[in-house]
UniProtKB/TrEMBL annotation:
Keyword Zinc: no
Keyword Disulfide bond part of the UniProt annotation: yes
Cited PANTHER family: ENDOGLIN-RELATED (PTHR22963), LP13770P (PTHR22963:SF38)
Gene3D superfamilies: Laminin, Plasmodium vivax P25 domain
Name of the protein in its database record: EGF-like domain-containing protein
Highest taxon, organism lineage: Eukaryota
Gene Ontology MF: a single term: calcium ion binding
Keywords: Disulfide bond, EGF-like domain
């Protein structure tokens, strides 16, 4: 009988159905891939930022759900794993074909094909069609039909309309063509149930909320007072975004700002700006105003590989944020970016979530060469004696080794024993070498193993056994035997060459026997055969080890060499994988001077002074010279500075008098509390803190010694930088409403289309968001 679902023939995340002649494997809802090997499922996600698509794949929102898809540039493949560009057909007029392959003109190209009567890969080798007797002589995707291995679905399609024919273990299997594989394949308000799209209304809980409480008619969830149900951001006000089907303030759900930064809800998103008294990029980091930290970078390549350049503040920062990786994962700075890795004792997708390893529940939690059996990852092999087991994608396959026959699940029978019955001489032993019987005398015995073995002993002096014989003293008496290739029964019958030394032949398989002039037999290999390892044991067929070529790209194959593949000078590498130009080891030791470290960035060497050192990293870094102002030679309240000649100079601060070497006196104030509330202590004097504190179009007022900036009436923007006129009300139908532009941008209608541009004094991509060109005058 055919395969059944009870034998678990399907891969991970699949459904198995018994069909006439075998089984049909289907990916579960929301999963894609080959159901016979295993399907990949996307983790539940609400936005494209939550969903991790495959390589070269893109994400779009469909029916308020994120959907991975392959873009036009990479239209092939599974968007959850990898999308790829179509492979252009090779032109065999220049690339050539394999052995026996023919280059023929197709509709719009030239391609290789095997000639009539031959099969195989025409780009490698075509072989003559060999007939078959049973399905076992064909691949599992073919069957023996009319004495030839063919696709049984192509011989005669046995399936009804709306079914597709698949070959499983030589048998044609009819599988119903599914209307959907996951819910994104269905039209709005429908979801995928097995193979069909059904209305969402089935199974949705009914609303049962109290008075004044809104109900989400799609999910049946009750919402708090004042909550607005939404499906897209445009359903909410500008300061809110549609999050989990409810209008919410983005800053309250997830604050993306750095320390000392303020989060502002705007344009259905969030904006970060440094708090009063701080400067920098609110998304990356804020530093106190007047921080003397030296800028060290302009581009990522200016930083060590484990740092990222904050181009606004010109400093190298750690690229790992608090939420860069999933739960139970650690963030590792790598090449100016991040790599996420599960913590020890955890496994999973480190970018989404890692789970503790506590046994296993399914095969996908085990290595590909193991399976989850009774809650543990173990070897799934259960083959019979003498069988060989291969494990591919958690599934075990048993087969008999070459020369063995039988059912590998119950046991394989070895080849017939050529040493039974023993073809050797008396007391001689027989062993099998390459399928051939080899005779030899056991330890402690000597003689002719093809005739008779006798116990070892001392040589007889003189030899009483006659010519062409050997003699050993055994138990005090002589034991005679004929030397190899001689016959007789010494000493009564002298040892002599046989009348016909080649009958029977003393030579091994694939040899020919000839009689020399001295009466001895000589064994030679048949034409096209080699000694293995000598003609007595036999000869094997000579094979050109360079056909087919086993070498890697760039390597040369010489059949007379051992090994045959080698890399020609000056190429280096493993000739069976690839030979390439030798690569110079960067940063070993590198061009850096003393007290500097070398980093490889973009295949180039860069030098950086070590912490605490200054100077030219390529010539040498030094410790900074000791400042003459340390320790401070000046009096109390005096300031110390270094003259161009390197001497200390003491001065009294503004607003103070006296001898700076002995001490300064007379300050109006030392801290804000010593001034009126509308003034601040600046330079030891009570002054108005507002001048220069606010941006254009903003007003300043003083609250408890601190300046507070606000945009003037009718203006909006960041009062610390610049305030702008409120945009005029644009009638409905204008392409700029809702605005398709990012933060800090201006949307204008040109030719009936929305055109985005950055606001004055800001830079960046207006489609994703602009940032201030600078934050200080």
């Amino acid at each position: 009988g055919g395969e059944s679902c009870s034998q678990n023939p399907c891969g991970e995340n699949t459904q198995c159905r018994n069909v006439p002649g075998g089984v049909a494997c289907l990916c579960e809802s929301g999963c894609t891939g080959d159901p016979y090997q295993g399907c990949v499922c996307a983790k539940s996600a609400n936005t494209c930022q939550d969903l991790k698509c495959g390589t070269n794949a893109a994400c779009k929102m469909r029916d308020n759900k994120p959907l991975c898809f392959c873009p036009p540039k990479y239209p092939l493949g599974d968007p959850l794993t990898q999308c790829s560009a179509p492979v252009l057909p090779k032109d065999c007029r220049t690339m050539g074909c394999g052995k026996h392959g023919e280059c023929v003109a197709m509709q719009d190209s030239y391609a290789c094909q095997c000639p009539s009567g031959m099969v195989g890969n025409p780009e490698v080798e075509c072989s003559p069609v060999v007939g078959c007797v049973s399905n076992d002589e064909c691949s599992q995707k073919q069957a023996c039909v009319n004495g030839a291995c063919q696709n049984p679905c192509h011989v005669a399609n046995p399936c009804a309309p709306h079914h597709t024919c698949q070959v499983d273990h030589h048998n044609p299997v009819c599988v119903k063509v599914c209307e959907c594989q996951h819910s994104t394949d269905c039209r709005p308000h429908y979801h995928c149930d097995g193979c069909a799209c059904i209305p969402d209304s089935e199974g949705v809980p009914s609303c049962n909320c109290g008075p004044g409480i809104l109900c989400d008619s799609i999910t049946g969830a009750c919402l708090g007072p004042g909550k607005v149900v939404c499906h897209v951001n445009e359903d909410c006000g500008l300061t809110e975004a549609c999050i989990s089907g409810v209008c919410q303030h983005p800053c309250s759900v997830h604050n993306p700002c750095a320390q000392y930064a303020i989060c502002v809800n705007t344009n259905h998103g969030s904006e970060c700006s440094c708090a009063e008294g701080y400067q920098g990029n609110g998304f990356v980091g804020c530093l106190p105003v007047g921080d003397s930290r030296t800028p060290v970078c302009q581009y990522n390549e200016d930083c060590p590989p484990d740092k990222l350049c904050d181009r606004l503040n010109r400093i190298c920062i750690n690229p790992c944020a608090e939420d860069s990786c999933g739960d139970n994962a650690e963030c590792i700075p790598t090449n100016h970016g991040i790599t996420c890795s599960c913590l020890p004792g955890h496994q999973g997708n480190a970018y989404i979530e890692c789970e503790a390893v506590t046994g296993c529940k399914s095969n996908r939690e085990c290595p590909r060469n193991e399976a989850c059996i009774n809650g543990h990852c173990t070897n799934p092999c259960r083959c019979g004696p003498n069988a060989v087991c291969d494990v591919v994608n958690h599934r075990a396959t048993c087969k008999c080794p070459p020369g063995y026959t039988g059912n590998p699940s119950s046991g394989c029978r070895g080849p017939q024993n050529p040493c039974n019955p023993n073809p050797c001489g008396i007391q001689a032993l027989c062993e099998i070498d390459n399928g051939n019987p080899i005779c030899f005398c056991p330890k402690g015995m000597t003689g002719n193993p093809f005739k008779n073995c006798i116990p070892e002993g001392d040589d007889c002096t003189p030899n009483p056994c006659g010519p062409n014989s050997g003699c050993r003293m055994v138990h005090g008496g002589p034991q005679c035997f004929c030397l190899p290739e001689f016959e007789g029964n010494p000493p009564s019958k002298a040892c002599a060459l046989p009348t016909h030394p080649c009958d029977p032949s003393p030579c091994g398989p694939n040899t020919q026997c000839a009689i020399l002039s001295n009466g001895f037999a000589k064994c030679t290999c048949l034409p096209g055969y080699l000694e293995s390892p000598n003609t007595i044991r036999g000869c094997v067929e000579k094979r050109n080890q360079c056909q087919p070529n086993p070498c890697g790209p760039g390597a040369i194959c010489d059949p007379n060499r051992q090994p045959a593949c080698f890399c020609p000078e000056p190429l280096v590498g493993n000739p069976y994988k690839q030979c390439a130009q030798p690569v110079k080891s960067l940063c070993q030791p590198g061009p850096c001077g003393p007290n500097a470290d070398c980093y490889v960035t973009g295949n180039t060497e860069q030098c950086f002074c070590r912490a605490g050192y200054v100077g030219d990293a390529y010539s040498g870094c030094l410790l900074p010279p000791a400042s003459p102002c340390q320790p401070n030679p000046c009096g109390p309240l005096a300031l110390c500075s270094v003259t161009p000649e390197g001497h200390p100079m003491c001065v009294c601060p503004d607003g103070m008098a006296g001898d700076p070497t002995s001490g300064c006196s007379g300050p109006e104030c030392r801290q804000d509390d010593e001034c009126p509330l509308h003034l601040a202590c600046m330079g030891y004097r009570c002054r108005d803190p507002c001048p220069g504190s606010c941006g254009a179009g903003a007003s300043c007022r003083v609250e408890k010694h601190h300046p507070v900036c606000t945009c003037n009436h009718g203006l909006t923007g960041n009062p610390l930088i610049r305030c702008y006129l409120l945009p005029e009300h644009i009638p409905i139908g204008n392409p700029c409403i809702p605005s398709p532009c990012g933060l800090n941008t201006l949307c204008e209608v040109r030719g009936g289309r929305a055109v985005c541009s950055c606001l004055p004094d800001t830079v960046g991509d207006p489609h994703t968001g602009c940032r201030p060109e600078c934050v200080l005058n």
